[in-house]
Specification:
Radius of gyration: 19 Å
Largest sheet: 2 strands, parallel
Number of domains: 1
Oligomer: single chain
Number of helices: 8
Strand order of the largest sheet: 1-4
């Protein structure tokens, strides 16, 4: 007999005030931005940085737009282009779900470039600060995925397998929690240690490269346990879309780490 754990069935709505329903996923976004902003301020205050605290404060708005617009556009282009081409009115229906981290990453990169140019601050210094804060959002976002019972794992026979309401009767890997641990906690810890050890030694861009490499590797691992999107399935060589999109990040990360290492 295969052991399994019942899904905790947490209400995806955290707060309900009359007709207004605030979901855990929305709270995860807000908490990610607030905690990420505070972490960036802490690093900017400690590092010999040309990024002023007021720049960090103002950049939060730009980063928010980059994450939301990039994340949504990335999902539309990478995951369901056919559907949105036939139903363009659904592109703005973000309340139905559908965000891509890789798209959000591109959107954030554009925001960094535009903001750094407008404020005349080094692009790579701003990107290093941002990279150190991103794992906070990744952790909270994956936990929110688990609460929603979405993006669950592949069928499993491990003792901690969970039967997800939307995943049928088969016990599955809680891959959202695996990714929260890898992309969130582990990546944050790696960048925290690297930032402490390389302060004043590494050239701007080193931490950005470490983030890109670390995220790409952890996402490749996490995708081994995650059920691929039903409308995409497995792609080239049995890879998932998430894995294919992570390969360029790994290559870019390796290049930056080599070029900007202490």
């Amino acid at each position: 007999m295969i052991l399994s754990i019942p899904f905790p069935n947490i209400d995806p709505v955290a707060i309900e005030l009359g007709p207004i329903a605030i979901r855990w996923y929305a709270l995860a976004y807000v908490a990610s931005l607030v905690l990420g902003w505070r972490h960036m301020r802490s690093l900017a205050a400690k590092r010999d940085s040309t990024v002023a605290l007021r720049d960090v404060d103002d950049f939060v708005v730009w980063a928010t737009l980059g994450v939301v617009l990039g994340g949504r556009l990335g999902y539309v282009l990478f995951y369901r282009p056919g559907h949105y081409l036939a139903n363009p009115e659904d592109i703005l229906a973000v309340w139905r779900g559908g965000m891509s981290f890789h798209g959000g990453l591109v959107g954030t990169a554009v925001a960094i470039l535009l903001f750094a140019r407008a404020r005349r601050i080094p692009v790579l210094k701003l990107s290093d600060l941002t990279a150190c804060a991103v794992p906070i959002g990744l952790f909270l976002g994956r936990v929110a995925n688990f609460v929603n019972g979405e993006l669950f794992g592949r069928p499993a026979d491990v003792p901690w397998a969970i039967i997800f309401p939307q995943g049928g009767a088969e016990p599955r890997h809680p891959s959202q929690l695996y990714e929260a641990g890898l992309e969130g906690l582990a990546l944050f810890a790696v960048l925290f240690v690297l930032e402490r050890r390389s302060r004043g030694a590494a050239r701007p861009g080193f931490l950005t490269g470490a983030f890109l490499f670390g995220y790409g590797v952890f996402r490749l691992i996490g995708e081994l346990f995650r059920e691929p999107d039903a409308h995409l399935g497995f792609l080239a060589a049995g890879a998932t879309m998430g894995q294919l999109l992570s390969i360029p990040l790994i290559l870019a990360g390796v290049l930056l780490v080599i070029l900007r290492r202490p």
